[in-house]
Amino acid sequence: MGAPPDVVALRLEEALQALQEAGLVARVRTTSPPRKVAAGEVQRVVRQRTTAAGEVELLVVWERYVPAHGAAPSRQPGG
Q1: What is the pTM of this model?
Q2: Within a 13 Å sphere around the CA of 5, how many CA atoms are in the beta-carbon half?
Q3: Chain-centre distance of CA 45, in angstroms?
């Protein structure tokens, strides 16, 4: 078995399909910015690494976020 396909920046569904077609098992982990909640329907792969023979770990994020309820607003430049 060669190197796994590069799936960074792909939508999660596309990445999982590519890895499955290559005969690999994916383990998915999600990350997000502090004090933000997901506000979209699309997750993208931001990191991949091979963890064992035939297994690839994917780190994914949602494309859009909004401030969490009660979170302090972020400081904007020039504001």
Answers
A1: 0.81
A2: 17
A3: 4
